[in-house]
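Dear support,

Our group has been running a series of protein-ligand predictions, and this particular one with G3I is the one our PI (initials K.S.) wants archived with full inputs and outputs. We had some confusion internally about which version of the output was final, so please treat the block below as the authoritative record. The input we submitted was:
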Amino acid sequence: ESTLGAAAAQSGRYFGVAIAANRLSDSTYQSIANREFNSVTAENEMKIDATEPQRGQFNFQNADRIYNWAVQNGKEVRGHTLAWHSQQPGWMQSLSGSALRQAMIDHINGVMAHYKGKIAQWDVVNEAFADGSSGARRDSNLERSGSDWIEVAFRTARAADPSAKLCYNDYNVENWTWAKTQAMYRMVKDFKQRGVPIDCVGFQSHFNSGSPYNSNFRTTLQEFAALGVDVAITELDIQGASPTTYAAVVNDCLAVSRCLGVTVWGVRDMDSWRSGDTPLLFNNDGSKKQAYNAVLNALNAG
Ligand code: G3I
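Confirmed final output from the archive:
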Protein backbone atom coordinates (compact mmCIF):
# COMPACT_ATOMS: atom_id res chain seq x y z
CA GLU A 1 0.00 0.00 0.00
CA SER A 2 1.15 3.55 -0.65
CA THR A 3 -0.37 5.48 2.28
CA LEU A 4 0.01 5.04 6.03
CA GLY A 5 -3.68 4.47 6.67
CA ALA A 6 -4.09 1.85 3.96
CA ALA A 7 -0.88 0.12 5.02
CA ALA A 8 -2.04 -0.07 8.64
CA ALA A 9 -5.46 -1.33 7.57
CA GLN A 10 -3.83 -4.47 6.16
CA SER A 11 -3.54 -5.70 9.75
CA GLY A 12 -6.85 -4.23 10.91
CA ARG A 13 -5.20 -1.20 12.49
CA TYR A 14 -5.44 2.52 11.85
CA PHE A 15 -2.78 5.17 11.36
CA GLY A 16 -3.97 8.46 12.78
CA VAL A 17 -2.99 12.09 13.19
CA ALA A 18 -3.72 15.01 15.49
CA ILE A 19 -5.59 17.75 13.64
CA ALA A 20 -5.82 21.46 14.50
CA ALA A 21 -9.06 23.02 13.28
CA ASN A 22 -7.43 26.26 12.22
CA ARG A 23 -5.05 24.44 9.88
CA LEU A 24 -7.69 22.65 7.83
CA SER A 25 -7.85 25.70 5.53
CA ASP A 26 -4.16 25.11 4.60
CA SER A 27 -4.43 23.06 1.42
CA THR A 28 -1.05 21.33 1.78
CA TYR A 29 -1.88 20.32 5.34
CA GLN A 30 -5.39 19.20 4.49
CA SER A 31 -4.40 17.14 1.48
CA ILE A 32 -1.63 15.27 3.33
CA ALA A 33 -3.89 14.64 6.31
CA ASN A 34 -6.69 13.36 4.09
CA ARG A 35 -4.45 11.19 1.92
CA GLU A 36 -2.32 9.49 4.57
CA PHE A 37 -4.38 8.99 7.72
CA ASN A 38 -7.59 7.12 8.58
CA SER A 39 -8.01 8.18 12.21
CA VAL A 40 -8.16 11.68 13.66
CA THR A 41 -7.64 13.18 17.13
CA ALA A 42 -8.45 16.83 17.80
CA GLU A 43 -5.20 18.37 19.07
CA ASN A 44 -6.96 20.85 21.39
CA GLU A 45 -10.58 21.30 20.27
CA MET A 46 -12.27 18.57 22.35
CA LYS A 47 -10.51 19.54 25.58
CA ILE A 48 -12.36 20.94 28.57
CA ASP A 49 -11.54 24.62 28.01
CA ALA A 50 -12.65 24.37 24.38
CA THR A 51 -15.89 22.44 24.88
CA GLU A 52 -17.20 23.97 28.14
CA PRO A 53 -15.73 27.49 28.32
CA GLN A 54 -18.46 28.59 30.72
CA ARG A 55 -20.03 26.19 33.16
CA GLY A 56 -22.93 24.36 31.55
CA GLN A 57 -22.47 26.19 28.22
CA PHE A 58 -21.00 23.73 25.78
CA ASN A 59 -19.34 24.84 22.55
CA PHE A 60 -18.55 22.24 19.90
CA GLN A 61 -17.83 24.60 17.01
CA ASN A 62 -14.18 23.77 16.47
CA ALA A 63 -14.54 20.20 17.69
CA ASP A 64 -17.28 19.64 15.13
CA ARG A 65 -15.17 21.18 12.36
CA ILE A 66 -12.65 18.42 12.96
CA TYR A 67 -15.24 15.72 13.58
CA ASN A 68 -17.18 16.56 10.42
CA TRP A 69 -14.05 16.80 8.29
CA ALA A 70 -12.92 13.40 9.58
CA VAL A 71 -16.23 11.64 9.01
CA GLN A 72 -16.82 13.23 5.59
CA ASN A 73 -13.42 11.83 4.62
CA GLY A 74 -14.05 8.35 5.98
CA LYS A 75 -11.90 8.54 9.09
CA GLU A 76 -12.63 7.38 12.62
CA VAL A 77 -12.26 9.76 15.54
CA ARG A 78 -10.45 9.42 18.88
CA GLY A 79 -11.87 11.76 21.51
CA HIS A 80 -9.31 13.71 23.57
CA THR A 81 -9.87 14.37 26.48
CA LEU A 82 -12.59 14.51 29.19
CA ALA A 83 -10.87 14.72 32.58
CA TRP A 84 -7.45 16.36 32.86
CA HIS A 85 -5.62 18.71 35.23
CA SER A 86 -4.51 20.90 32.31
CA GLN A 87 -6.44 23.10 29.88
CA GLN A 88 -9.25 23.46 32.38
CA PRO A 89 -11.33 26.59 31.90
CA GLY A 90 -10.98 29.19 34.65
CA TRP A 91 -14.31 28.32 36.24
CA MET A 92 -13.20 24.71 36.70
CA GLN A 93 -9.74 25.63 37.99
CA SER A 94 -11.42 27.53 40.79
CA LEU A 95 -13.54 24.55 41.91
CA SER A 96 -12.62 21.89 44.45
CA GLY A 97 -14.12 19.03 46.38
CA SER A 98 -17.64 17.87 45.65
CA ALA A 99 -18.40 20.86 43.41
CA LEU A 100 -15.47 19.96 41.18
CA ARG A 101 -16.51 16.29 41.24
CA GLN A 102 -19.97 17.22 40.01
CA ALA A 103 -18.55 19.54 37.37
CA MET A 104 -16.32 16.72 36.08
CA ILE A 105 -19.31 14.37 35.87
CA ASP A 106 -21.45 17.00 34.15
CA HIS A 107 -18.65 17.74 31.68
CA ILE A 108 -18.22 14.08 30.74
CA ASN A 109 -21.96 13.70 30.29
CA GLY A 110 -22.29 16.88 28.22
CA VAL A 111 -19.48 16.11 25.78
CA MET A 112 -20.20 12.41 25.44
CA ALA A 113 -23.89 13.08 24.80
CA HIS A 114 -22.99 15.36 21.90
CA TYR A 115 -20.87 12.64 20.30
CA LYS A 116 -22.85 9.61 21.46
CA GLY A 117 -22.23 6.63 19.21
CA LYS A 118 -19.72 8.54 17.07
CA ILE A 119 -16.35 8.19 18.79
CA ALA A 120 -14.19 5.07 18.46
CA GLN A 121 -12.11 5.72 21.58
CA TRP A 122 -12.33 8.37 24.27
CA ASP A 123 -9.36 9.43 26.37
CA VAL A 124 -11.55 9.62 29.47
CA VAL A 125 -8.71 10.50 31.83
CA ASN A 126 -5.40 12.06 30.80
CA GLU A 127 -2.07 12.25 32.67
CA ALA A 128 -3.13 11.40 36.24
CA PHE A 129 0.23 10.07 37.44
CA ALA A 130 3.25 12.00 38.67
CA ASP A 131 6.57 12.00 36.86
CA GLY A 132 9.68 10.68 38.56
CA SER A 133 10.22 7.72 40.81
CA SER A 134 7.34 8.12 43.28
CA GLY A 135 4.70 6.12 41.42
CA ALA A 136 2.20 8.52 42.99
CA ARG A 137 -0.76 10.26 41.52
CA ARG A 138 -0.14 13.74 40.16
CA ASP A 139 -1.29 16.46 42.53
CA SER A 140 -4.19 18.38 40.99
CA ASN A 141 -7.56 19.76 41.90
CA LEU A 142 -9.08 16.54 40.52
CA GLU A 143 -6.88 14.34 42.70
CA ARG A 144 -7.68 16.46 45.74
CA SER A 145 -11.40 15.95 45.01
CA GLY A 146 -10.83 12.31 46.06
CA SER A 147 -8.55 9.72 44.51
CA ASP A 148 -11.59 7.79 43.24
CA TRP A 149 -12.05 10.54 40.61
CA ILE A 150 -10.58 8.33 37.90
CA GLU A 151 -12.96 5.43 38.40
CA VAL A 152 -15.88 7.84 38.75
CA ALA A 153 -14.89 9.34 35.41
CA PHE A 154 -14.81 5.91 33.77
CA ARG A 155 -18.15 4.78 35.23
CA THR A 156 -19.74 8.06 34.14
CA ALA A 157 -18.31 7.68 30.65
CA ARG A 158 -19.53 4.10 30.23
CA ALA A 159 -23.08 5.13 31.13
CA ALA A 160 -22.93 8.19 28.84
CA ASP A 161 -21.85 6.30 25.71
CA PRO A 162 -21.62 2.51 25.94
CA SER A 163 -20.37 2.26 22.35
CA ALA A 164 -17.07 4.12 22.83
CA LYS A 165 -13.90 2.40 23.95
CA LEU A 166 -12.80 4.11 27.16
CA CYS A 167 -9.07 4.80 27.46
CA TYR A 168 -6.65 6.01 30.11
CA ASN A 169 -3.92 8.07 28.38
CA ASP A 170 -0.49 9.19 29.66
CA TYR A 171 3.13 10.01 28.75
CA ASN A 172 6.43 8.63 30.10
CA VAL A 173 4.71 5.28 30.56
CA GLU A 174 6.33 3.51 27.60
CA ASN A 175 9.42 2.24 29.46
CA TRP A 176 8.41 -0.89 31.39
CA THR A 177 10.97 -0.25 34.15
CA TRP A 178 9.73 3.24 35.06
CA ALA A 179 7.79 3.80 38.27
CA LYS A 180 5.10 5.76 36.42
CA THR A 181 4.50 2.81 34.09
CA GLN A 182 4.22 0.41 37.01
CA ALA A 183 1.82 2.72 38.84
CA MET A 184 -0.42 2.91 35.78
CA TYR A 185 -0.22 -0.88 35.45
CA ARG A 186 -1.36 -1.37 39.04
CA MET A 187 -4.31 0.95 38.46
CA VAL A 188 -5.45 -0.84 35.30
CA LYS A 189 -5.04 -4.24 36.97
CA ASP A 190 -7.10 -3.05 39.92
CA PHE A 191 -9.80 -1.60 37.63
CA LYS A 192 -10.07 -4.86 35.70
CA GLN A 193 -10.28 -6.88 38.93
CA ARG A 194 -12.98 -4.64 40.39
CA GLY A 195 -14.97 -4.21 37.19
CA VAL A 196 -14.29 -0.52 36.68
CA PRO A 197 -15.07 -0.02 32.97
CA ILE A 198 -11.77 0.57 31.13
CA ASP A 199 -11.16 -0.71 27.61
CA CYS A 200 -7.85 0.71 26.51
CA VAL A 201 -4.63 2.41 27.51
CA GLY A 202 -3.10 5.15 25.37
CA PHE A 203 0.68 5.52 25.34
CA GLN A 204 1.35 9.08 24.19
CA SER A 205 4.93 8.28 23.11
CA HIS A 206 6.49 11.74 23.06
CA PHE A 207 10.09 10.55 22.80
CA ASN A 208 13.09 12.82 23.32
CA SER A 209 16.53 12.71 24.91
CA GLY A 210 15.14 12.90 28.44
CA SER A 211 12.49 10.29 27.72
CA PRO A 212 13.99 8.14 24.98
CA TYR A 213 12.43 5.19 23.23
CA ASN A 214 13.47 1.89 24.80
CA SER A 215 12.88 -1.48 23.15
CA ASN A 216 11.12 -2.66 26.31
CA PHE A 217 8.13 -0.65 25.06
CA ARG A 218 6.97 -3.87 23.41
CA THR A 219 6.99 -5.60 26.82
CA THR A 220 4.92 -2.73 28.21
CA LEU A 221 2.32 -3.07 25.45
CA GLN A 222 2.21 -6.85 25.92
CA GLU A 223 1.87 -6.63 29.72
CA PHE A 224 -1.04 -4.19 29.52
CA ALA A 225 -2.76 -6.21 26.79
CA ALA A 226 -2.44 -9.26 29.04
CA LEU A 227 -4.58 -7.45 31.62
CA GLY A 228 -7.42 -7.52 29.11
CA VAL A 229 -7.31 -4.00 27.67
CA ASP A 230 -6.52 -2.75 24.18
CA VAL A 231 -3.49 -0.53 23.77
CA ALA A 232 -2.81 2.33 21.37
CA ILE A 233 0.03 4.70 20.56
CA THR A 234 -1.78 8.00 20.80
CA GLU A 235 0.52 11.03 20.36
CA LEU A 236 3.70 9.76 18.72
CA ASP A 237 6.49 12.19 17.97
CA ILE A 238 10.24 11.60 18.17
CA GLN A 239 12.84 14.32 18.62
CA GLY A 240 14.89 14.28 15.41
CA ALA A 241 12.50 11.76 13.81
CA SER A 242 14.97 8.87 13.63
CA PRO A 243 13.65 6.50 10.93
CA THR A 244 14.90 3.50 12.93
CA THR A 245 13.07 4.59 16.06
CA TYR A 246 9.87 5.33 14.17
CA ALA A 247 10.00 1.86 12.60
CA ALA A 248 10.69 0.26 15.98
CA VAL A 249 7.62 1.90 17.53
CA VAL A 250 5.42 0.79 14.65
CA ASN A 251 6.81 -2.74 14.87
CA ASP A 252 6.07 -2.81 18.61
CA CYS A 253 2.42 -2.07 17.88
CA LEU A 254 2.28 -4.61 15.07
CA ALA A 255 3.72 -7.26 17.41
CA VAL A 256 0.83 -6.92 19.87
CA SER A 257 -2.53 -8.13 18.61
CA ARG A 258 -4.41 -5.82 20.97
CA CYS A 259 -2.58 -2.72 19.68
CA LEU A 260 -5.33 -0.84 17.85
CA GLY A 261 -3.18 1.62 15.94
CA VAL A 262 -0.75 4.52 15.96
CA THR A 263 -1.49 8.26 16.01
CA VAL A 264 1.22 10.85 15.26
CA TRP A 265 0.89 14.23 16.99
CA GLY A 266 0.71 16.47 13.94
CA VAL A 267 1.26 16.46 10.18
CA ARG A 268 4.37 18.52 9.28
CA ASP A 269 7.19 19.56 11.61
CA MET A 270 5.83 23.12 11.59
CA ASP A 271 2.52 21.82 12.93
CA SER A 272 4.12 20.22 16.00
CA TRP A 273 3.77 21.53 19.56
CA ARG A 274 7.57 21.12 19.64
CA SER A 275 8.44 22.06 16.09
CA GLY A 276 12.06 22.82 17.04
CA ASP A 277 12.57 19.08 17.50
CA THR A 278 11.48 18.33 13.90
CA PRO A 279 9.71 15.27 15.32
CA LEU A 280 7.12 14.36 12.66
CA LEU A 281 6.87 12.49 9.34
CA PHE A 282 6.51 15.40 6.88
CA ASN A 283 8.73 18.39 6.11
CA ASN A 284 7.28 21.89 6.19
CA ASP A 285 6.93 21.87 2.38
CA GLY A 286 4.79 18.75 2.65
CA SER A 287 7.42 16.32 1.38
CA LYS A 288 7.91 12.96 3.04
CA LYS A 289 10.80 12.54 5.47
CA GLN A 290 12.92 9.39 5.76
CA ALA A 291 10.93 8.52 8.85
CA TYR A 292 7.81 8.41 6.69
CA ASN A 293 9.36 5.76 4.44
CA ALA A 294 10.51 3.76 7.45
CA VAL A 295 7.01 3.77 8.91
CA LEU A 296 5.34 2.88 5.60
CA ASN A 297 7.78 0.02 5.00
CA ALA A 298 7.23 -1.33 8.52
CA LEU A 299 3.46 -1.25 8.08
CA ASN A 300 3.66 -2.98 4.70
CA ALA A 301 6.04 -5.64 5.99
CA GLY A 302 3.90 -6.32 9.04
O1 G3I B 1 -5.62 29.33 20.96
C1 G3I B 1 -4.69 30.20 21.60
C2 G3I B 1 -4.51 31.45 20.79
O2 G3I B 1 -5.73 32.15 20.76
C3 G3I B 1 -3.39 32.28 21.43
O3 G3I B 1 -3.15 33.41 20.65
C4 G3I B 1 -2.13 31.47 21.55
C5 G3I B 1 -1.00 32.24 22.22
O4 G3I B 1 -0.32 31.46 23.15
O5 G3I B 1 -2.40 30.33 22.31
C6 G3I B 1 -3.37 29.49 21.72
O6 G3I B 1 -3.59 28.36 22.52
C7 G3I B 1 -2.53 27.41 22.52
C8 G3I B 1 -3.08 26.09 22.01
O7 G3I B 1 -2.11 25.09 22.12
C9 G3I B 1 -3.54 26.16 20.57
O8 G3I B 1 -2.44 26.43 19.74
C10 G3I B 1 -2.03 27.27 23.93
O9 G3I B 1 -1.39 28.47 24.34
C11 G3I B 1 -1.07 26.12 24.04
O10 G3I B 1 -0.76 25.88 25.39
C12 G3I B 1 -1.69 24.87 23.46
O11 G3I B 1 -0.73 23.82 23.50
C13 G3I B 1 -1.25 22.51 23.39
C14 G3I B 1 -0.89 21.73 24.62
O12 G3I B 1 -1.35 20.40 24.48
C15 G3I B 1 -1.51 22.34 25.88
O13 G3I B 1 -1.45 21.48 26.96
C16 G3I B 1 -0.65 21.87 22.16
O14 G3I B 1 -1.14 22.53 20.98
C17 G3I B 1 -1.02 20.39 22.10
O15 G3I B 1 -0.27 19.77 21.10
C18 G3I B 1 -0.68 19.74 23.43
O16 G3I B 1 -1.09 18.39 23.36
C19 G3I B 1 -0.79 17.60 24.52
C20 G3I B 1 -1.89 16.57 24.66
O17 G3I B 1 -3.16 17.21 24.71
C21 G3I B 1 -1.68 15.72 25.89
N1 G3I B 1 -0.36 15.13 25.90
C22 G3I B 1 0.75 16.05 25.70
C23 G3I B 1 0.56 16.86 24.44
C24 G3I B 1 1.74 17.77 24.18
O18 G3I B 1 1.90 18.73 25.17
